[in-house]
Design a protein that fits this description.
Helix content: over 70%
Strand content: under 5%
Order of helices and strands: HHHHHHHHHHHHHHHHHHHHH
Distance between the termini: 17 Å
Number of strands: 0
Structural class: mainly alpha
Number of helices: 21
Radius of gyration: 27 Å
Shape: globular
């Protein structure tokens, strides 16, 4: 039941109807049953995995909550600071034991399902060097959304351990949170306390939620069906046949993939966020127009925000406060190197975060290299930031000028695009080959020859046709002719127009809420815009007979 399918839309509408008809007291039960149905339809073989994670982390949280409650009772009877300190230390030790068990179960399931094959293949490569017999490589199923719900489960037990909020004692609340069907497959990675606060007392019907949610849902479908799926064949062809493709087209395909993955992933998030908003449940914001970023650091504060915040809270900060970091800073300070201590304390956690980020995205070396690539860019920006500032001052560059900001955005977009070659390629060898072909076989002539020939043909048809009908009959086959790159001239023009629309919408959203502005418009104007968007999806969406529906890119993670 893919998020862009009619089945998902009908399913969501049916659940929504029951959700509000049965009233607040039964809303959580409606969601629990809907989550179970959704996940069962996706694959009943996946259910044991999410259930084990759910039970392990719920009872881990409950155990830690009981330990902390008992400690509070003991503290009330303590008379000296030493006694209180001993009680707290004992409670923390017991809670930590429970935490380790709960985390171990969750991480083990994720690691075994996702990384067993990768580890075994690499062990076999090492054994091959010593002419040793190969080990069998087991192909295990990868449960739907395991990377996302595992991270949500880990955030819950860690938050309870750190006493950010009390442990949940109602299993229904926790089950609804972890398996909530809009976010279980691709996120966003929500936090339990934020989610639970919205559902525990029920949600009152509000027509504004329906209107705003449906508008966001419609825009998400526009991004996915009209833009992302239109670019997909061209990108797939370029990365599949890079050896036979001119470097200029590979460069364009790299740019196209950056747009495709943004329209695809943010489109999915808009769809699920819109559906969730209809239920009166707001999910975490996951995108904030990332391609307007002027630095790599800013880009990753705008792209997949919930994942970056998760790594910041549960990896970056704990690593920064670890004993290793304290020893390292002490070592550098003793040698009177405060700048080195400062850089190490900020750069080492970045390296750890991005190694894990790469591994999280997939069991392949190209994802790991992609993570290291971004770590190098982010660390480099920290190390060389003072030099860049001095260079700008000496060159008297007006860093607040629109032209300079445009250059920064272009530079950031290109740096992300180059990294995405590793992200999209099937292997490291394929990525390196793609780079080599792109830079060594680059030809502007090859890029513009099809355009020139096409315009020449259009002019020829126009001058030789006696009527508009005759001109169109000659032109139509030309527009639908695939000239060997997986995309037709008609799709190229449509892609350019829709990307321009997306860029304009993102520009406007940077300044104010378009949905709020639309709500204040006259009803005729408002519904004209909404129906125009609906017809754009219906008329220009990539689907229908012969269409092989493209899964959302982040479903594989």
């Amino acid at each position: 039941m893919s998020y862009q399918s009619f089945g998902f839309l009908f399913f969501s509408a049916a659940v929504l109807l029951l959700y509000y008809l049965l009233g607040k007291k039964l809303q959580r039960w409606v969601l629990a049953v809907a989550n179970l149905v959704f996940y069962t339809v996706a694959g009943p073989q996946y259910l044991p995995f999410i259930l084990v994670t759910m039970l392990a982390t719920f009872f881990t949280g409950k155990k830690m909550g009981g330990i902390y409650e008992a400690a509070e009772t003991q503290l009330a009877a303590c008379t000296t600071p030493a006694e209180k300190k001993a009680v707290k230390a004992n409670a923390k030790k017991k809670a930590k034991t429970a935490l380790i068990i709960g985390m171990a179960v969750t991480i083990a399931l994720l690691a075994v399902c996702k990384y067993t094959g990768f580890v075994m293949r690499n062990i076999n490569q090492i054994l091959k060097l010593f002419h040793a017999p190969k080990l069998p490589v087991f192909k295990l199923i990868l449960p739907l959304g395991i990377s996302f719900y595992s991270f949500m489960a880990l955030s819950y037990v860690l938050d309870v351990f750190w006493k950010r909020y009390p442990a949940e004692t109602n299993f229904l609340n926790y089950a609804v949170y972890l398996s909530y069907f809009p976010h279980v497959v691709q996120g966003p990675i929500d936090r339990f306390n934020e989610f639970n606060a919205q559902i525990q007392d029920g949600v009152k019907f509000d027509s504004k939620n329906l209107v705003f949610g449906s508008e966001l849902l419609l825009f998400g479908l526009f991004k996915k069906l009209v833009i992302a799926d239109r670019l997909a064949p061209f990108v797939t062809h370029a990365f599949g046949f890079w050896k036979e493709t001119n470097g200029a087209f590979l460069f364009v395909a790299m740019l196209a993939y950056s747009v495709q993955i943004y329209a695809d992933f943010s489109g999915c998030i808009d769809i699920v966020t819109g559906v969730s908003e209809m239920f009166g449940i707001k999910l975490r914001k996951n995108f904030n127009h990332p391609y307007f970023s002027k630095t790599m650091g800013e880009f990753w504060r705008r792209w997949h925000i919930s994942l970056q915040e998760w790594f910041k809270d549960y990896v970056y900060y704990p690593v920064s406060a670890s004993g290793l970091m304290r020893k390292a800073k002490k070592h550098f300070n003793q040698k009177n190197k405060p700048r080195a201590a400062e850089l190490f304390s900020s750069c080492f956690p970045i390296l750890v975060v991005w190694l894990i980020t790469g591994i999280w995205h997939g069991a392949s070396w190209n994802y790991i290299i992609w993570g290291i690539y971004h770590a190098i860019l982010l660390i480099g920006s920290q190390i060389f930031s003072p030099l860049f500032q001095k260079a700008n001052q000496r060159l008297k560059i007006n860093v607040s000028s629109p032209l300079w900001k445009f250059w920064q955005m272009t530079r950031t977009f290109l740096l992300c695009g180059f990294g995405r070659i590793f992200f999209r390629a099937n292997s490291v060898t394929g990525a390196l080959g793609y780079f080599g072909q792109m830079f060594t076989q680059f030809s502007f002539k090859a890029l513009f020859t099809p355009l020139y020939n096409g315009l020449k043909n259009v002019y020829s048809y126009f001058t030789s046709s006696g009527s508009i009908t005759s001109f169109w009959l000659k032109l139509r086959p030309e527009l639908n002719r695939d000239f060997g790159l997986g995309i037709t001239p008609a799709n190229i023009m449509m892609a350019l127009v829709t990307i321009l629309i997306l860029w304009c919408v993102d520009m406007l959203q940077e300044k104010h809420s378009l949905r709020e502005s639309l709500l204040r418009k006259h009803i005729i104007i408002r519904w004209t815009i909404i129906f125009a968007g609906l017809f754009a999806v219906i008329v220009f969406g990539v689907y229908g007979p012969g269409y092989n529906a493209k899964s959302f890119i982040y479903e594989q993670f």
